[in-house]
Amino acid sequence: MNKLATTFTGLEFVNPFVLASAPPTESKLKILKAFESGWGGVVTKTIGLHPVENVAGPKTIYQRTSETKPYVSRMKRMETVSHSSWNWELISDKPLDLWLPDLEEIKTTYPDRMVIASIMAGAGSDEEMDNWSKLATSCVNVGCDAIELNMSCPHMDRKDMGANIANDEDIIRSILGAVTSAVSVPIWVKLTPSTSKLVDAAGAAYESGASSISLCNTFPSLPLMDPETMKFEVEVDGLVTSGGLGGLAILHQALQRVSDISKAFPDKAISGIGGIRGFREAFNFIVHGAGNLQVCTAAMEEKGSGGVGQNPGGEGVVRQYEFLRPAQLSLLTERRLKGPWGLAGGGDGAVGVNLLNGETIPAKCNLSVVAGDLLTLMTPGAGGWGKP
């Protein structure tokens, strides 16, 4: 007997743990690896019909903090813990006709695992409603078990998509009307948590045929600026824009929104998302009304300094030196602002970090040290090769 088996929106899950729509579900290889590792289901990276051009350079960063140095930064430092993820990545740039054979193979290979296709189109015209219908029908026809409607991405490049529709109830009804008339599988609706109309929007979705509400997607936010370099921690040629904050930093807000929906609609299904790393977070989502659990940041967070890829980049090394007497310290190090580049779709390696008694010091410097000072040199990780 499988004690973790659950039934959610009429679907039989071998366990309630699902990879959320994000980079971990952006390709056939990654999804197959997820099922091999034991995940009960996946929600694919969002599939659309419009041309997508993602930002150049890093699309997701991971921010950390510590008790002794409690500022939040993507800079890797000794003895830090996860705080959040931040991304400005758009939906999948892989076209529908490439997704469909991959989805069919995934479902054929793992028939007992649930494949939920995340889809997105626009609003305000019959053409866009037809796009919603086409996406849903195409994915269901190759075996997808359910559809998740992405109405919550906080940084879409079109005003009629994602969180830009701001939980407009008329738009929600029209999209659900188009999708429910085209397919008969369960429809999950991923609403933006960043409006005061969330409960009303959820009600409109349920009334229009939604089987579940998925909460929470990332919250709109800006990247941090390093006060020492006066540069944003993620940028493209010095330019930044709004992105989405996720991970542990949004856990309490996500629980509040799940609770609000559960109290308003106690007999309806909710898929909980936002800061789940283990049992304690999962338990809290279930207590507040979630019947299914989606995980993102914890599954993709950097575990080392090497860039991701088909061939991951090598890890940097950490060297520590304790000074036994006063001395003059000269450093001439590189790759402390930008990590070594990945190639052929591989991820960049992490930047190097120099610390003196736990404080970041410049890549090139000449400093006086005293007995007992501790120097830590964290060398950069190598870039990865090949799209993971």
Description of the structure:
This protein folds into 2 domains: 6-300, Aldolase class I (TIM Barrel); 318-378, no CATH class. Helices cover 23% and strands 24% of the residues. It has 8 helices and 22 strands. Strands 3-4-7-8-9-10-15-16 form an 8-stranded parallel beta barrel, surrounded by 7 helices. Strands 5-6-14-11 form a 4-stranded antiparallel β-sheet, with no helix packed on it. α3 (126-141) packs across α4 (169-180) and α4 (169-180) packs parallel to α5 (198-207). The radius of gyration is 22 Å and the shape is elongated. It starts with 5 loop residues before the first strand and ends in a 10-residue tail after the last strand.
Q: How would you summarize the topology of this molecule?
A:
Blueprint: E1 6-8, E2 11-13, E3 17-19, H1 28-37, E4 41-43, E5 60-65, E6 81-87, H2 96-109, E7 114-119, H3 126-141, E8 146-151, H4 169-180, E9 187-191, H5 198-207, E10 212-215, E11 219-221, E12 225-226, E13 231-232, E14 243-246, H6 251-264, E15 269-273, H7 279-287, E16 292-295, H8 297-300, E17 318-322, E18 327-332, E19 353-356, E20 359-360, E21 364-369, E22 374-378
Parallel strand pairs: 3-4, 3-16, 4-7, 7-8, 8-9, 9-10, 10-15, 15-16
Antiparallel strand pairs: 1-2, 5-6, 6-14, 11-14, 12-13, 17-22, 18-21, 19-20, 19-22
